[in-house]
Amino acid sequence: MPELIDISPNKDSGVLKEILREGEGDECAPPGSKVRVHYTGTLTDGTKFDSSRDKNEPFEFDLGKGTVIKAWDIGVATMKKGEQAMLTCAPEYAYGKSGSPPTIPPDSTLKFDVEVISWKCEDLSPKGDGGIERSQIKAGEGVTFPNDGALVQVSLIGKYEGRDFDVRDVTFTVGEGSEQNVIAGIDIAIEKFKKGETSKLTIKSQYAFGTQGSEEFNIPPNATVEYVVTLNSFERAEESWALDTKERIEQAKIFKEKGTNYFKASKFTLAVKMYKKIIDYLGSQKDPKFREEMDGLILAANLNLSLCYLKMDDNFEAKDSATAALKIDPDNVKALFRKGQALLKLGEPKQAADHFAHCLQLDPGNTAAQSQQVLCAKTLKEQLQKEKKVYANMFDKFAKMDAQREEIEKKKEPNVMSSVGEWGKEDREREPSEFEKENPNILLLNGSGEFKDM
Question: What is the pLDDT of residue 367?
């Protein structure tokens, strides 16, 4: 007789488990994973009310997220891959006093024959590409999570091919983990951790050490790594919605200073993040008392964003940021110059030249703008020469095609006309057609190729 185990958290016999078939290995599906199961649900009298087996289609759900009855979140979390078990679920762990009409009466104890087929770990990657997968080892406490800008203290154990390569305690600001040599996958995932949580993260190369690998940790290019991460403590950053306009301005000034420091250190991605925060914090504020100061900070943020993007060779973003700056100050020389640079790199020398000309109207001694104008003229000249060459080749090609077509037509119809406007003998001596006999006044060509009336 299989053993009946009380697996309810309070040991109140709310969820009883009877293993019908043992599973494989030692691991169970971790909370947050997407689990595929087969099941058959019956009342205590044996009446079947639902079955995935009858539909021949496994049921899939996110474990521990409250998308199924409590008994399932509790019971399936104890099951291994391939395991089959009978879960007996008291009403308070199933559909309670209301039941689920018409198939499940109120206050029903239910029995579920469940088989775990497989699971996929929780995907925390921003694009949902499986680049950061979490397998929870120990649940955290409370209901809050670190947010962007929070100060976190974590313990790390990095593993690659069974080797520990990064074992340390580290404190960093969420969103700026690279400052402490914390890879992007951890920096992103930590926002989904609760205090005290320990989880294993499987992190693909695009969120780890990329195509370069890590000489320091002896990690080759394009490597997938694992980290066991424990969030020991954190201090959430103040949310922007909780700040008044003056407080937002003070925070924006901090972001500006941090962005400038990152830019000087050639950490352009982090600099961009800081400058964008300025716009996020101030863009929605309408208080006229602070309008001039806020516009100055937003203008500086867009100017600096444009410069960062030029350094990163992201010329579309550079152009857009400079355009945003010009909406605030249409005669801003830096914005005009940087938009001109972006347009020139995007293959628009005429528009770029217009922006550099505007620069020189405002600042005639701007030697950088003068140099860029010369480069625009050179680029325009090269473009025109290329276009001429393309068109010349195109016309030559068309002329050859026309000549070939004429030659083919001549070969196809050698006896139609002996010369232009001159009919052959056969045409002059032929009998009139029935149509011509019935319509004697139609126009015909005479021997000289002219029309005549009959």
Answer: 96
Amino acid in position 77: A
| Nearest in space to 165 (alpha carbons), one of 120, 121, 215, 205 | 215
| Residue 223 parent element (H or E) | none
Which residue type sits at 263?
F
Is 113 catalytic? The answer is no
Residue 112 falls in the annotated catalytic set: yes
329 a catalytic residue: no
**pLDDT, tens digit, 9 for 90 and up, residues 314-339:** 999 999 999 999 999 999 999 999 99
Bin 31: left if φ > 0, else alpha if -120 < ψ < 50, else beta: beta
Q: Is the peptide bond before 102 cis (omega within 30 degrees of 0)?
A: yes
Active-site residue (options: 19, 49, 157, 290): 49
Q: Is 69 a catalytic residue?
A: yes
Per residue in 163-221, pLDDT (tens digit) is 999 999 999 999 999 999 999 999 999 999 999 999 999 999 999 999 999 999 999 99
Active site residue 39: yes
Please tell me the predicted confidence (pLDDT) of residue 236: 97
Catalytic residue among 59, 93, 95, 263: 95
Sheet strands (E) in 121-273: 122-123, 132-138, 151-160, 163-173, 198-203, 225-235
Query: pLDDT tens digits for 88-131?
Result: 999 999 999 999 999 999 999 999 999 999 999 999 999 999 99
Residue 32: left (phi > 0), alpha (psi -120 to 50), or beta?
Answer: left
For 148, 282, 283, 296, the CA distances from 291, given in Å and listed in that order, are: 26, 10, 11, 9
Distances (CA, A) of 190 to 55, 153, 209, 391, 392: 39, 10, 18, 58, 61
Find, among 20, 14, 18, 22, the residue nearest to 5 by Cα.
Answer: 18
